[in-house]
Amino acid sequence: MREPSRAAEIGKMAERVESNLREYRTSANLTQAQLAENVGVTRQTIIAIERGNYTPSILLALKLARALGVTVEELFRYVE
Q1: Which pLDDT score is estimated for 16?
Q2: 1 in a structural domain
Q3: Which domain holds residue 23?
């Protein structure tokens, strides 16, 4: 079996999900703690999503979008 090329590895590392969570949260006048409580996670989870250190599950993304009154597509963007 052939090993993936270095370029392919770098390409996969560049794939990520970007979040507009902080912008929508602050526009809704919610603290990280308030939003976390509304969707049933910890404040640390909200911090990690806002910093780009954690990609939420589909269920959590849906809960966040609903809590903020936006679509998942408005809240998160896939970047190649």
Answers
A1: 86
A2: no
A3: 6-79
